[in-house]
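Re: the multi-chain job from yesterday

Posting the exact lines I submitted so nobody has to dig through the queue logs.
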Amino acid sequence: NAGVTQTPKFQVLKTGQSMTLQCAQDMNHEYMSWYRQDPGMGLRLIHYSVGAGITDQGEVPNGYNVSRSTTEDFPLRLLSAAPSQTSVYFCASSLGTSAYNEQFFGPGTRLTVL
Amino acid sequence: SQELEQSPQSLIVQEGKNLTINCTSSKTLYGLYWYKQKYGEGLIFLMMLQKGGEEKSHEKITAKLDEKKQQSSLHITASQPSHAGIYLCGADLLRSGSRLTFGEGTQLTVNP
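And the result, structure tokens for all chains:
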């Protein structure tokens, strides 16, 4: 099992550019989520999904879109990147449709928006 | 202000010493998680506590949940350099079963 994989590992964008952060898991987990980690702010939930076709907003959803067409993949889209979106992004998944199970985290994507 | 406050923010100890990290919530806890993060890497699950008074141990790490105080503590016995990293607590504060709030983390350095 590869676990939770994220691509790319590093990305530099210019303000206004769009991009998609990829997240995939091979554990057949129903629950997947995206967090951003910023100094002094800890991890903050952006969006989450409890199964294919079902997504919901977390604490800081503005500026991000998600979709869940398959159980394995949960991409995060930045439609028009802003410097405030400079952060480290983590994708996580867990068995079952809640966060009450162990969440497996990916290695992260470090994004810089100039 | 953070809904989950961790203390201390950073900790430097000599190898072999015991240490405690605290996680205090401003709201009722419906599940408390502890994770460890190495710099530049993802989070590794340590333990999950759900009931008041619950205590779990894994190797030299013990976590306890005090429901009345809305607080959890993580205790490391006889610390080793391998324990170094950032420890984060996360909790379900909305009773959503799906949305976790995390503390800012505690940076632990263990000097040999």
